[in-house]
Amino acid sequence: MIFRSCWPALVSARRTLWHGTLQLLFPGSCWLCGQTLAEGHTGFCLSCRQTLTSDPQPTCPRCSSSIGPHVDLTGGCQRCRGTSFDFDECTRLGPYQGLLRDAILRMKRWQGEGLAEVLGALWAEHALARLRSKQPHVVIPVPLHWTRRWSRGYNQSQVLARALALALAVPFQPGWLRRRRRTGSQTALTAEERRKNLRGAFHAGRGLNLAGKTILLVDDVLTTGATASDAARALRAVGAERINVAVLAHAD
Ligand SMILES: [Zn+2]
Ligand SMILES: [Zn+2]
After folding, report:
1. Fold held by 58-250
2. What is the pLDDT of residue 190?
3. pTM of the entire structure?
4. CB under 5 Å of ion ligand 1: residues
5. Where are the domains of the chain?
6. According to the model, what pLDDT value does residue 252 have?
7. Ligand 1 mean position to 77 CA, how many Å?
């Protein structure tokens, strides 16, 4: 019984390991589909690259969820209007579905760091002009609690944020925000329960003063915005003036 319940995880771990091995043996193959890369391409083939970077719908500038045409965005979209966030804006690479969702799930597994690096580089290349227009002074990832970072082997948001900071030529400061307690899985919680569960889960580095600073806060997925908002609150508490969130995907 235990063996049966572990089987999907074992299969996916083997697949991840296989992709990692493929990358070592054939560095010129796509991380997601295994196709041979065209000359001058790294990480992903043209087809995967296009799928990952084609956001099919316009998005809400406040929470980055998909919106229809001619939507009234006064005070946010239908999903976020009435919800208070401690960040100012949120942008995304795409919706949490299809190939982007597969890539994020794969990235979160043990040894997913190599995939996170190429995904971060693709994101930086695609969104550079938009992110630069926010004029951030510093890039900070949403931290994982150390126990989760230890079990996963790395923090995927930190790898993604580093790629964005490098492309923007802006300081990268993963130590400026800490997660003081483990919040557990939030999947089964309602938006209100998530907010209560997270309250006070983050704190800024000791003695930090971010007065007048614009922060680019980076995470992999945004669902209700509760995690990003709580992280932003900790940065506001030390003076951050403007906080723009960038996520790989928004789970509508
Ligand atoms: Zn591919
Ligand atoms: Zn919204």
Report:
1. Rossmann fold (3.40.50)
2. 66
3. 0.85
4. 30, 32-33, 35, 45, 48
5. 58-250
6. 78
7. 34
